[in-house]
Amino acid sequence: MLEINNLSVEAGDKLVLKDIDLDIHEGEAHVLFGPNGAGKSSLLKAILGDPGVEVISGEIIFKGKNIKDMPMHERVKLGIGIDFQHPPRVPGVKLGELLELIGDRDKGKVKEMAVTLDLDDFLDRDVNVGFSGGESKRSEILQVYAQNPDFIMFDEPDSGVDVESVELIGKKINKMLDKEKKPSERKKSGLIITHLGYILNFMDVDRAHVLYDGIIACSGRPKEIRDQIIENGYQGCIECCQMERS
């Protein structure tokens, strides 16, 4: 689904990603850990084609096509979606109207998802205007669900929301990524950014990576890496991975 080769990225004349390699196969969900400023969001922006970052070398292969120089809207048409860390407010546009404009999924299914996200009473409200943190996050999930992309990126979906919302969001991400289906039947793939990994208590992830100082310092089993980070911090986790490799 996604193949990243030797990717280096700058943001504001600063090198934030250095020779990143990452493969995510069809039906897989990967989680990316990392401290603040490690470059996690910059990686998502590079995959999406956000002009706020500049790819200076490497390849981004999506569904067999090198999309490195492709504009953002073309990447979205190919099947890339994103759940933003800080969802924008859109005064004057109703959430229900926006969902109809996105329109890649059956309206009945979108309505059903709105109900399960406790957002059915929000469809006549301006997008994210006056929403709490958890409501804005759930609104983003609903918008991405309506878009129905093949590859979905989630930028810290468990940040700034209460425990109940984290559980609800985690279960809905599982649904969006076909995790309720058999592995052979899964077609969706995803990349989830998280700082502490609490959301992993409520969703199924295949592989984890730690981004540290602009490089992927280690990879492995999601809950093992999360537990190492909680117990020893990021530096201790990386040292443990290096010891295991040696």
UniProtKB/TrEMBL annotation:
* Keyword list, A-Z: ATP-binding, Nucleotide-binding
Lineage in the entry? Archaea, Methanobacteriati, Methanobacteriota, Methanonatronarchaeia, Methanonatronarchaeales
Single GO term (MF)? ATP binding
Tell me what this protein is called.
Answer: Cysteine desulfurase activator ATPase SufC
User: Which residue intervals define the domain ABC transporter in the entry?
Assistant: 2-238
The domain of life for this entry's organism is: Archaea
Q: Which PANTHER family match?
A: ABC TRANSPORTER I FAMILY MEMBER 6, CHLOROPLASTIC
CDD domains linked to this entry = ABC_FeS_Assembly (cd03217)
- Pfam families per the record? ABC_tran
Nucleotide-binding recorded as keyword: yes
> What InterPro entries does UniProt report for this protein, alphabetically?
AAA+_ATPase (IPR003593), ABC_transporter-like_ATP-bd (IPR003439), FeS-cluster_ATPase_SufC (IPR010230), P-loop_NTPase (IPR027417)
The record ties this protein, via SMART domains, to: AAA (SM00382)
